[in-house]
């Protein structure tokens, strides 16, 4: 403290000690951060005024100024005058203070005017400060009012004081000075004292000291004269105004700035009016800055609880400051204060500054207490509003049973008093509470919450009765999102069950918001839903979990049809069946053999719009991160698929993502050559690394929590180690000579393993970054079958839990090595038909999950070398498979845009049959008999009605490629990969005859109607007609390329078509060609014969279809318009129509007579990038009356031929349906998907 200031204190010590009451003085000084809580206690315990003077004498100039201002504020005008000449002078050559850049002029004006000093802990909010200045400029020299309003504790006072620390503003606009008065909640007596003190301050250097004004009117007049004559062009600041009647005392045609919670407080006064709304929350980083200043630490040094505390403070400057001051005094209580905030224990977050209220709850409750009684009840009703939700006016109209205008008037009262916030979105208003206000209300009305929830549900039911909100209504989204929340809050078990177990509700809600929120609600409210039993809730939760990826797409599927695919014991199925039976004229299908199918996935989600390249669990298993070709990083809940984060993270495809060991960060790497680190909760980008020169294929964090090391590998042949504390790469590991595809830390973090296209796995020491050893994987592929000139691309590796073994995958092999010796411990050939894309070790070290290119995932026991599970469900290549840290779950991601979550134990207990897509079906006496190829080695005869296997052959030595049934159901035939054709007796499965017919695999075989002859074709240009009973064979030679297919005509004739673009008619007795049609420039993909036998159609890869006359051998019509290969065609039974389907998913219906296009069969809307039919249209069949059409492709669809509209869609579990067998009455349909699942569907 300056010597002069110190002397003035000592000279006037006696007068000060005799007259002042310390408690109010100390409040101001604590607010100015010049007095601590401990010092305040000390003063209270001892000689109060004397002790305070002693403490001030030991402090700096700031404490002198604060003491002087406090005396002025509290009416000690005479005492303040004694100290005035001792106010420390600001010394600086340019008039600027070396401390904070304010001029001495500004400091003098503010000090004399009693403006609060800047708090010791202060962070700038320049936008708001500038906004206040701008409104003060607007006043100019005219009288008027500037209102700075906002909720309790949002920083109004500090921001207003900061705006006044501007030399130009004060000199140009308020040369008469600034006069600050803290008003607060006052009665008339209190207001009079405030006015008397202000008048006294303004008269303090007057030679004639007047008596204080005796009433408010007198005070108002005196103040008007003082401001007019003595302080023209000055600014009066009224801090913390509560009531409009108070303002009338200051309505003196002067310039006034007020701070208030009530926006409407100036309604009762005249003059120009300007407003500045102070937002209720600081940004997260600003909050951390405040906290760090209080506890004198760098932001990076703050403990983890700091982030949580800022989140719980909801950005409130008041709460952050309260907590910061407490932590400054009690630095070990981070966890304690966090718990108090989380448990809404506002009373325990007590006064630690001179803020006007003892505790946080008091600061908020005093605003509510100011309301009229009616308004208090309305405000109490808001206790049950969900957090962070803007509620439309219509919801509150329903709650209070009022007109919109009445409701808006009530809510405006709350908005004016900063008890509620309003978002004016176009024409409609949406209202919301600050989180702290909602926490306060919830805590205050805890005992009444159930009744309040009940009331809003009853009001909803009264308003909507049995109807549901429709999307055009402004309140629609609120009810779909929160009606269940209110029912659960009211513990209305019956109503909640009726709602959540309603297919109508599920359909309406998922169409609007997708399935994840509903799944979340089943989990969240399970305690209410399961009061009788959990079975029904589990039925609906499983239904949504496994069909959610379908419910999120366009066109929206028929939920009743999806429900009919559930197990017959499921409540979903039973409800769907009742609905289907009650809807007249609707078209629904029963999957009559579905009882054999077990759903193995636990959840299917479709977060991306393109291929999903990678996905991984967080360490706590609660979240999943995924990335892919759509350049986004997604984070969602494991339980429900509910989206938590969606970030467009890179400029090119994202190839890998990984959680850090503490789940705080997610790393991504991309084809754009960049590696990025993200905060996994907020989505903020923390680091960008750009040192790789080619696409980055893989990123992996180390396993030890607290130390953030990241390994990345790239097509540039390098592996890099990054320490997140540094900006640059810590180590670069050289050694590979080709692209590095994958890298992984060992569980003990001592090593990094890398896999490369150069055919090696390398192990590196983490500490030194030196190469430890190289394992030459390509050496294990150099035998007769695997040519050594073929590149051995090592895709992936995985460590055992003890870091002793490493598993590598290349081509179709799993290879397990001992890390110490590099010896091969074991190898498994997983598949002969597809390559391994990815592998992962389960936590127990016995199970290995393998992702394959042919859509499936297999689990292998690496000790017994046996396959323990085959997980089918994906419709395209599977890129990734990853176990959860505890091994109880694993996830798979695929080109089909989905991620599937599986339960390891459930999958390992299952063994579903896999059928090939080639099958034959005969419809006989109301039954359907199906001949199918099981696991490529057996022939099965299945009763489609009962799903019973009637006959199964012995395993065949060569894989089976095709099969057929005789019409009398006595015989069956099949063709094999080695070119053999066999005929067997269905009664016992005994092979009657066989013929080694071809050198290539047999593609098609069919019996003639007398069952004595078998016709077959293979991957060559010859058709063989084999009378198997006489063992005679006729060869049909003439095509120049492989036969695509054939069909029998009447009178021993056969129609065949080929990749050579020709169609031929044969006499199967003589083997001669009777007709030869040069049909297309490209391969002929299908042919159909008209019901009258006079015409046939051909379709081709050249994107055209043609109608031909058998008689004239001429083309009648060339049908153009398809934009892709025309894959299939069929004539209608009435001989008037031809339907064609192409590889784009389009179906066209043509008039046979004119060749004109009648209809284009396509859904109204399809998701972007989705083919119309989920893929190629592979088969078509008309109903007997020619009014309906069924098509197969990615799934099955039924169409109205007259309108071209879709009647029904049946989504199979898999995709790529090659054909559909239809009963003569068009009521039974048989097909197999690419997962090998058999579907026998019956029209309901």
UniProtKB/TrEMBL annotation:
Subcellular location per the Swiss-Prot or TrEMBL entry:
Cytoplasm
Show the SUPFAM superfamilies listed in the entry.
DEATH domain, Nucleoporin domain, P-loop containing nucleoside triphosphate hydrolases, WD40 repeat-like
Short name of one Pfam family for this protein? CARD
Q: Key word Cytoplasm present in the record?
A: yes
Q: Which GO terms describe its cellular component?
A: apoptosome; nucleus
Domain CARD, which positions? 1-86
Ranges for the WD repeats: 605-646, 647-688, 689-732, 733-774, 871-903, 995-1027, 1036-1076, 1077-1118, 1119-1160
Identify the InterPro entries for this entry: Apaf-1, APAF1_C, Apaf_helical, Beta-prop_EIPR1-like, CARD, DEATH-like_dom_sf, NB-ARC, P-loop_NTPase
- Is Glycoprotein a UniProt keyword of this protein? no
Q: Which GO terms describe its molecular function?
A: ADP binding; ATP binding; cysteine-type endopeptidase activator activity involved in apoptotic process; identical protein binding
Q: Where would you say this protein principally sits, based on its record? A: cytoplasm
One Gene Ontology BP term is:
forebrain development
Keywords annotated in UniProt = Apoptosis, ATP-binding, Cytoplasm, Nucleotide-binding, Repeat, WD repeat
Q: How does it assemble?
A: Monomer. Oligomerizes upon binding of cytochrome c and dATP.
Q: Which PANTHER family does this one have?
A: APOPTOTIC PROTEASE-ACTIVATING FACTOR 1
Described by its record, this protein's role is as follows:
Oligomeric Apaf-1 mediates the cytochrome c-dependent autocatalytic activation of pro-caspase-9 (Apaf-3), leading to the activation of caspase-3 and apoptosis. This activation requires ATP.
Q: What is this protein called?
A: Apoptotic protease-activating factor 1
- Species in which this protein is naturally found: Anser brachyrhynchus
């Amino acid at each position: 403290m300056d010597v002069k200031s110190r002397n003035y204190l000592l000279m006037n010590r006696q007068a000060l000690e005799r007259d002042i009451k310390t408690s109010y003085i100390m409040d101001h000084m604590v607010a100015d951060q010049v007095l601590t809580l401990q010092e305040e206690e000390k003063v209270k315990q001892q000689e109060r005024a004397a002790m305070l003077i002693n403490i001030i004498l030991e402090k700096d100039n700031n404490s002198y100024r604060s003491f002087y201002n406090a005396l002025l504020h509290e009416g000690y005008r005479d005492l303040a005058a004694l100290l005035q000449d001792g106010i420390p002078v600001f010394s600086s050559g340019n008039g600027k203070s070396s401390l904070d850049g304010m001029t001495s002029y500004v400091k003098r004006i503010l000090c004399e005017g009693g403006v609060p000093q800047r708090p010791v802990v202060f962070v700038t909010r320049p936008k708001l400060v500038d906004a206040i200045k701008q409104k003060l400029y607007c006043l100019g020299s005219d009288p008027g009012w500037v209102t700075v309003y906002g909720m309790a504790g949002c920083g109004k006072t500090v921001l207003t004081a900061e705006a006044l620390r501007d030399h130009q503003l004060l000199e140009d606009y308020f040369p008469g000075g600034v006069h600050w008065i803290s008003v607060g909640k006052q009665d008339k007596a209190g207001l009079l004292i405030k006015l008397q003190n202000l008048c006294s301050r303004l008269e303090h250097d007057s030679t004639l000291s007047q008596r204080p004004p005796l009433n408010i009117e007198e005070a108002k007049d005196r103040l008007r004269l003082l401001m007019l004559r003595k302080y023209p062009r000055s600014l009066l600041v009224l801090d913390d105004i509560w009531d409009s009647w108070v303002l009338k005392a200051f309505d003196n045609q002067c310039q006034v700035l007020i701070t208030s919670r009530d926006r409407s407080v100036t309604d009762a006064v005249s003059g120009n009016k300007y407003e500045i709304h102070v937002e209720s929350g600081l940004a997260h980083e600003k909050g951390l800055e405040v906290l760090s200043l209080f506890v004198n630490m760098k932001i990076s040094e703050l403990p983890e609880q700091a982030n949580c505390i800022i989140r719980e403070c909801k950005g409130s400057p008041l709460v952050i400051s309260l907590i910061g001051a407490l932590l400054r005094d009690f630095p070990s209580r981070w966890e304690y204060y966090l718990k108090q905030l989380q448990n809404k224990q506002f009373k325990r977050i007590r006064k630690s500054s001179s803020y006007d209220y003892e505790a946080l709850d008091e600061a908020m409750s005093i605003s509510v207490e100011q309301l009229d009684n009616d308004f208090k009840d309305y405000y109490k009703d808001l206790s049950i509003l969900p957090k962070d939700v803007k509620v439309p006016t219509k919801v509150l109209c329903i709650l209070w049973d009022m007109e919109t205008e009445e409701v808006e008037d009530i809510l405006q009262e709350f908005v004016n008093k900063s008890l509620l916030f309003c978002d004016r979105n176009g024409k409609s208003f949406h209202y919301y509470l600050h989180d702290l206000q909602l926490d306060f209300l919830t805590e205050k009305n805890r005992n009444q919450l159930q009744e309040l929830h009940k009331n809003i549900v009853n009001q909803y039911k009264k308003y909507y009765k049995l109807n549901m909100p429709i999307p055009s209504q402004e309140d629609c989204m609120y009810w779909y999102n929160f009606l269940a929340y209110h029912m659960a809050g009211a513990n209305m078990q019956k109503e909640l069950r009726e709602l959540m177990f309603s297919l109508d509700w599920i359909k309406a809600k998922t169409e609007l918001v997708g399935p994840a929120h509903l799944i979340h609600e089943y989990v969240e409210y399970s305690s209410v839903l399961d009061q009788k039993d959990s079975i029904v809730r589990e039925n609906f939760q499983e239904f949504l979990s496994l069909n959610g990826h379908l419910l999120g797409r366009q066109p929206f599927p028929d939920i009743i049809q999806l429900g009919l695919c559930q197990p017959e014991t499921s409540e979903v199925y039973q409800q769907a069946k009742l609905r289907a039976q009650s809807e007249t004229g609707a078209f629904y299908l029963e999957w009559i053999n579905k009882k054999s199918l077990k759903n193995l996935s636990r959840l299917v989600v479709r977060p991306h719009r393109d291929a999903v390249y990678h996905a991984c669990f967080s360490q706590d298993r609660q979240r999943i991160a995924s990335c892919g070709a759509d350049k986004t990083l997604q984070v969602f809940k494991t339980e429900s698929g509910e989206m938590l984060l969606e970030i467009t993270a890179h400029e090119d495809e994202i190839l890998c993502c990984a959680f850090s060991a503490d789940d705080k960060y997610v790393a991504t790497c991309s084809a754009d050559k960049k590696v990025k680190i993200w905060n996994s909760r907020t989505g903020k980008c923390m680091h960008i690394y750009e040192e790789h020169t080619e696409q980055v294929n893989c990123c992996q964090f180390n396993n030890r929590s607290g130390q953030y090391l990241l390994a990345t590998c790239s097509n540039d042949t390098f592996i890099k180690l990054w320490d997140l504390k540094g900006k640059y790469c810590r180590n670069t590991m050289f050694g590979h000579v080709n692209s590095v595809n994958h890298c992984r830390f060992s569980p003990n973090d001592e090593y990094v393993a890398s896999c490369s296209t150069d055919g090696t796995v390398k192990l590196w020491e983490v500490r030194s970054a030196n190469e430890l050893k190289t394992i030459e994987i390509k050496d294990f592929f150099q035998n007769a079958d695997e040519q050594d000139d073929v590149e051995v691309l090592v895709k992936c590796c995985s460590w055992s839990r003890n870091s002793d073994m490493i598993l590598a995958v290349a081509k179709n092999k799993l290879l397990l090595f001992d890390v110490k010796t590099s010896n091969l411990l074991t190898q498994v050939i997983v598949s002969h038909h597809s390559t391994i894309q990815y592998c992962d070790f389960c936590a127990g070290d016995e199970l290995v999950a393998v992702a394959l290119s042919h859509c499936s995932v297999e689990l292998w026991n690496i000790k017994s070398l046996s396959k323990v599970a085959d997980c089918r469900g994906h419709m395209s290549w599977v890129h990734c498979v990853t176990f959860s840290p505890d091994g109880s779950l694993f996830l798979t991601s695929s080109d089909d845009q989905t991620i599937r979550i599986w339960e390891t134990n459930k999958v390992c207990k299952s063994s579903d049959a896999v059928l090939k897509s080639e099958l034959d079906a005969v419809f006989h006496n109301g039954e359907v008999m199906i001949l199918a190829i099981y696991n490529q080695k057996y022939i099965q005869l299945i009763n489609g009605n009962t799903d019973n296997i009637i006959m199964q052959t012995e395993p065949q030595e060569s894989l089976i490629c095709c099969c057929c049934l005789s019409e009398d159901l006595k015989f069956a035939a099949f063709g094999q990969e080695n070119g053999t054709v066999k005929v067997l007796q269905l009664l016992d499965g005994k092979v009657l005859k066989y013929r080694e017919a071809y050198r290539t695999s047999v593609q098609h075989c069919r019996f003639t109607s007398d069952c004595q002859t078998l016709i077959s074709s293979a991957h060559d240009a010859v058709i063989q007609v084999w009378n198997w009973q006489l063992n005679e064979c006729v060869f049909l030679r003439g095509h120049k390329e492989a036969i695509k297919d054939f069909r029998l005509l009447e009178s021993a004739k056969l129609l065949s078509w080929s990749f050579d673009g020709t169609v031929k008619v044969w006499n199967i007795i003589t083997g001669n060609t009777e007709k030869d049609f040069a049909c297309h420039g490209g391969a002929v993909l299908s042919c159909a014969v008209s019901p009258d036998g006079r015409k046939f159609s051909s379709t081709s890869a050249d994107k055209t279809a043609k109608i031909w006359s058998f008689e004239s051998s001429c083309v009648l019509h060339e049908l153009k318009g398809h934009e892709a290969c025309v894959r299939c065609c069929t004539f209608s039974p009435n001989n008037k129509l031809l339907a064609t389907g192409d590889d784009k998913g389009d179906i066209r219906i043509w008039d046979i007579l004119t060749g004109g296009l009648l209809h284009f069969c396509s859904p109204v809307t399809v998701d972007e990038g989705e083919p119309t039919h989920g893929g190629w249209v592979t088969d078509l069949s008309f109903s007997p009356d020619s009014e309906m059409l069924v098509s197969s492709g990615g799934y099955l669809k039924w169409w109205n031929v007259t309108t071209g509209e879709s009647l029904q869609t049946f989504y199979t579990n898999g995709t790529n349906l090659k054909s559909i067998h239809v009963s003569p009455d068009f009521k039974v349909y048989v097909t197999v998907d690419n997962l090998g699942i058999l579907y026998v569907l019956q029209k309901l």
